[in-house]
UniProtKB/TrEMBL annotation:
The protein, known as: Uncharacterized protein
Keywords: Signal
Domain of life from the UniProt record: Eukaryota
Annotated region described as Disordered, given as residue ranges: 207-230
Species whose genome carries this gene: Phascolomyces articulosus
Compositional bias annotation for Polar residues: 207-216
UniProt signal peptide: 1-18
């Protein structure tokens, strides 16, 4: 009876799961059990085990299938009205590598859309079903899948060869230190690579000389029976080439040069040793962390998490962090202002925007302090854009900057005799100068917001702002920002603003979380870039308690920016310091992504290595 009840329980699971679009099929052991429902003793323990294993395996495969055909549903939802509907692009976006599986999942997605009751896309789906999916019979679809199959087969073999080539190079470099490693002829390698052709339902590697270790020489397409139990997704293996442009490879600090010493520890020397290790990793096409990438450009990036996953000892990172922050202290909000801020934040949570506006009006009448006016201006703007249903998590980048970031920056950095602001369309001249050293057609970086000295043709950038909206808060802006700050320091020095105490700042807003950075160039062989503080933007009217941290950190940033704007204007009119100019080190450009074949050619130092368009202008591997 127990086995009988168990069978019916699993049957119920199968039925209800199908309503959830999991499509669980009735396993063979269950049919066996039902055929002997009156004699349950014939269902042996190993059969019962196979039954449960089969059931859960079907659950797993069905869940994967459900996940992947959601990619088709998403594409159909946004492109059903395209005329004509681009079925090739639809398959590309779903990222399948198997034609039979992709077609099955596409049909499931269309049937699902056809069942919707509140979307115009259902009419399109119903027409597709009525025509018996005629759009899947186009010749270009077969051409597309043939191309996919060929790419997969070739990539698998090339990847194996790249790994073997790297291993040989490492062994040779260990055995023959001081001498160059043996090179492998590219044409010879290509003659050994597989030639892939279609033979009915098989992709055959026709080169008899190829003997890829552990590889299958015949790649079979998935049939309908196998696709229900195996769903594969394409995986691309890319490499990054970091030594782009005319950056400096080797460096030795001059005798008697400026060094960063903390508690008798030569931080400069430790950093340059670390940078040498990073350079070797870059030559080998190893993946570099953000801190490593910046070290390659002689930028010592110092933050709370800099020590994690990097080569220098954590105690050295801590010494650098502690010493860097001695120059900057977070400026607290005055107690009489804290009282008003607390009341407004509390009113936003409980009473709503109108109550908060009444409190703000009383504060404006009672307090005319300079900082109070800044806080009041920011509150006045934010209260207008934070109604009861406003939430920053729904905003795109332009809206997020307009509603939240710009009001804060305008209040803290109004145009005056020392500074002027620029929006997202302005090209950063320092970045442009740096990039055009190796590409005279390159454009400079464009920040989302910037503050420059109000000094005509001698104007210098003192604050760069980069933003990502909350719904896309994963940002790669930090390494770009740090390299740009270094370019700005170099431009200052070249233009005559060569005071060793000059600092430029950066503000990176990754969604609601904002990080303040400062960069300087006081020592030979290293540009310091360190994190000063972090604050948050309110998400909605219930989240205004974060305003206290925002004001404290922005007070600190304002003081640093205004102080250095004045120092820059003064320094540029004083006698130039040639010693500072000799400290300038140029940077590599942004990393270039290359594929396995290009990586193979680079590792072989082939002079025939070519890349198209802008990347080709940056890379000339013949000199490596």
């Amino acid at each position: 009876m127990a086995l009988f009840a168990c069978d019916w329980l699993m049957w119920l699971l199968a039925v209800t799961s199908s309503e959830l679009q999991f499509y669980i099929f009735f396993p063979a052991p269950l049919a066996y059990a039902f055929s002997f429902s009156h004699t349950p003793f014939l269902v042996f323990p190993h059969t019962l085990f196979l039954y449960f294993f089969s059931s859960f395996e079907h659950l797993r495969i069905a869940f994967i299938s459900h996940t992947y055909h959601m990619a088709f549903i998403k594409y159909i939802k946004h492109h059903w009205s395209d005329n004509p509907f681009d079925i090739i692009d639809c398959f590309k976006q779903s990222d399948y590598n198997n034609q039979v599986t992709a077609v099955e999942e596409f049909k499931k997605a269309v049937r699902k859309v056809a069942s919707w009751s509140d979307s115009p896309a259902r009419f399109w789906a119903q027409v597709i079903i009525q025509t018996n999916f005629a759009l899947l019979e186009k010749k270009e679809i077969d051409d597309y899948w043939l191309k996919v199959d060929l790419e997969i087969a070739n990539k698998m073999e090339v990847k194996q060869y790249v790994s073997a080539k790297r291993k040989i190079m490492e062994e040779n470099s260990g055995e023959n230190s001081g001498s160059s490693s043996k090179k492998i002829n590219i044409k010879e390698v290509e003659s050994r690579l597989p030639v892939v052709t279609r033979n009915q339902n098989k992709l055959v590697l026709e080169n008899e000389n190829w003997s890829g270790s552990g590889s299958d020489h015949t790649f079979k397409e998935e049939t309908s029976s196998s696709s229900s139990s195996t769903i594969k997704n394409k995986k691309k293996t890319d490499y990054y080439f970091y030594l782009v442009g005319d950056g400096q490879w080797e460096y030795s600090a001059p005798e008697g040069g400026e060094k960063w010493i903390v508690d008798d520890l030569d931080i400069t020397d430790q950093f340059l040793k670390y940078r040498c290790e990073v350079l070797e990793s870059a030559k080998n096409l190893d993946v570099l962390s953000t801190v490593d990438q910046l070290a390659l450009n002689f930028i010592c990036f110092i933050g709370e998490n800099s020590s994690k996953g990097n080569r220098m000892m954590p105690n050295i990172w801590k010494k650098m962090m502690d010493d860097s922050l001695k120059s900057f202290k977070i400026m607290p909000v005055a107690m009489n202002q804290v009282h008003w801020i607390y009341k407004i934040n509390q009113a936003m949570r409980s009473g709503g925007v109108n109550v908060a506006k009444d409190i703000l009006n009383h504060w404006c009448s009672a307090d005319k302090d300079r900082h109070s006016e800044i806080y009041q201006n920011i509150y006045d703007t934010l209260l207008k854009v934070y109604p009861s249903n406003y939430d920053t998590s729904d905003a795109n980048e332009d809206t997020f900057v307009k509603d939240t970031i710009s009001p804060i920056l305008r209040s803290y950095f109004p145009n005056d005799e020392y500074i002027t602001s620029e929006g997202a369309n302005g090209v950063i001249q320092a970045s442009c100068d740096s990039r055009r050293r190796f590409d005279d057609t390159a454009e400079g970086k464009k920040g989302d917001y910037s503050i420059n000295t109000n000094d005509g043709k001698f104007s210098q950038l003192v604050l760069l702002v980069e933003c990502k909206p909350p719904r896309n808060s994963i940002s790669g802006d930090i390494p770009k920002l740090a390299r740009c700050l270094k370019d700005c320091l170099n431009k200052m020095t070249k233009d005559g603003a060569d005071n060793f105490d000059l600092t430029v700042c950066g503000l990176v807003c990754e969604g609601r979380q904002c990080h303040i950075y400062a960069a300087d160039h006081k020592f030979h062989g290293m540009y310091r870039c360190y994190e000063i503080g972090t604050f948050f933007i309110p998400q909605n009217r219930h989240d205004f308690d974060v305003m206290m941290g925002l004001f404290e950190n922005m007070n600190t940033l304002q003081e640093i920016v205004i102080k250095n704007a004045k120092l820059c204007i003064e320094s540029i009119r004083q006698k130039q310091n040639n010693a500072k100019k000799e400290m300038i080190i140029e940077s590599f450009d942004s990393p270039i992504r290359i594929n396995e074949t290009q990586a193979l050619q680079y590792l072989n130092s082939s002079s025939s290595f070519k890349l198209g368009s802008r990347a080709g202008k940056k890379l000339d591997f013949s000199k490596y």
